[in-house]
């Protein structure tokens, strides 16, 4: 069979695109309730990550690699300094927090400052600083580990990238006139 595939006699169809997964409103509520129960630095990260992902529509790597100076809570914006495809044609851009209901959860800024102080740091470059690793930021796997912690606490199976799809779905659902604005938001 391998010979037939190699010679082109047998063409094996490629799998189609995976369906876009979103988080139901019930599960979203369970996630946001559960992150309030998680204590310490992990809890602070959970609250900050979930609130910022869901409020802005950032992709997992865009928030994971965000620098502290990229966050402007007064203007309710975050600068995407590491956009997806940045080596190609992606543009660095400011993105609004469009979910105002997430702003109270953005107390992460204060919790971050407290964590830095407790660990003997005056400042750190990254918005989500890894104080124990030479890069100064968390790896992709470490962020996924935090997401799995939230998932276990909430009893909801989800991934961080589902926040973007969920934000788009809830924003546009029932009002397709919002689609162009959502497209700009998610670049």
Architecture overview:
- This protein has 187 residues and is mainly alpha-helical.
- Helices cover 45% and strands 5% of the residues.
- It has 8 helices and 3 strands; from the N terminus they run H-H-H-H-E-E-E-H-H-H-H.
- Strands 1-2-3 form a 3-stranded antiparallel β-sheet, with no helix packed on it.
- Helix 2 (25-35) packs across helix 6 (140-154) and helix 3 (40-56) packs antiparallel against helix 5 (108-118).
- It is globular and about 65 Å long.
- The N and C termini lie far apart (43 Å).
How would the blueprint of this fold be written?
Layout: H1 2-7, H2 25-35, H3 40-56, H4 60-64, E1 71-72, E2 77-80, E3 93-96, H5 108-118, H6 140-154, H7 162-172, H8 179-186
Antiparallel strand pairs: 1-2, 2-3
Helix pairs in contact: 2-6, 3-5, 3-7
Which sequence of SSEs, written as H and E, runs from N to C? Answer: HHHHEEEHHHH
Tell me the span between the first and last alpha carbons. Answer: 43 Å
Strand order, largest beta sheet: 1-2-3
Low-confidence segments, ≥5 residues, pLDDT <50? none
| Amount of helix | 40-55%
Mind describing the biggest β-sheet?
A: 3 strands, antiparallel
Mean pLDDT: 85
Oligomer: single chain
> What's the shape?
globular
- Report the total helices: 8
């Amino acid at each position: 069979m391998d010979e037939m595939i190699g010679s082109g006699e047998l063409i094996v169809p490629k799998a189609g695109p995976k369906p876009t997964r979103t988080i139901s409103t019930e599960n979203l509520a369970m996630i946001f309730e559960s992150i309030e129960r998680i204590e310490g630095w992990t809890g602070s990260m959970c609250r900050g990550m979930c609130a910022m992902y869901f409020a802005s529509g950032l992709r997992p790597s865009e928030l994971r690699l965000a620098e502290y100076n990229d966050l402007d809570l007064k203007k309710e914006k975050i600068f995407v300094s590491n956009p997806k495809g940045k080596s190609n044609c992606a543009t660095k851009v400011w993105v609004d927090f469009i979910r105002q209901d997430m702003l109270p959860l953005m107390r992460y800024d204060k919790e971050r400052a407290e964590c830095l102080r407790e660990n003997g740091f005056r400042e750190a470059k990254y918005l989500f600083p890894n104080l124990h690793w030479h890069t100064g930021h968390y790896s992709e796997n470490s962020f996924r580990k935090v997401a799995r912690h939230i998932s276990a606490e909430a009893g909801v199976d989800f991934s961080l990238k589902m926040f973007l799809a969920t934000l788009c779905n809830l924003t546009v659902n029932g009002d397709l006139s919002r689609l162009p604005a959502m497209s700009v938001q998610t670049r």
